[in-house]
Design brief:
- With 71 residues, the chain is mainly alpha-helical.
- The chain has a domain at 28-70.
- The protein has 4 helices and no strands.
- The radius of gyration is 23 Å and the shape is elongated.
- Residues 27-63 form the YjiS-like domain.
- This is DUF1127 domain-containing protein.
- It comes from Gemmobacter fulvus.
- InterPro entries: YjiS-like.
């Protein structure tokens, strides 16, 4: 049985283009994550202490929202 090599090198610039697109995609995903955390913090900031207690949070916990994604 005959076998032959079927792998080819990537065209010139293909890897650089892929990495650039990956960088842009990661950048926009980070901005979307930041905005989601910002909107959540703003909504939680408008709640009363009683409402926050009902969902198991306190005022100090609001600042930690989104901090997990930064780590």
């Amino acid at each position: 049985m005959a076998a032959y090599e079927t792998t080819r090198t990537a065209p010139f610039g293909a890897i650089s283009t892929y990495r650039f697109i990956q960088f842009v995609s990661t950048f926009f995903a980070a901005i979307a994550d930041w905005n989601d955390a910002r909107v959540t913090r703003n909504a939680l900031g408008k709640l009363s202490d009683r409402e926050l207690d009902d969902i198991g949070l306190c005022r100090g916990d609001i600042d930690l929202i989104g901090a997990q994604s930064r780590v």
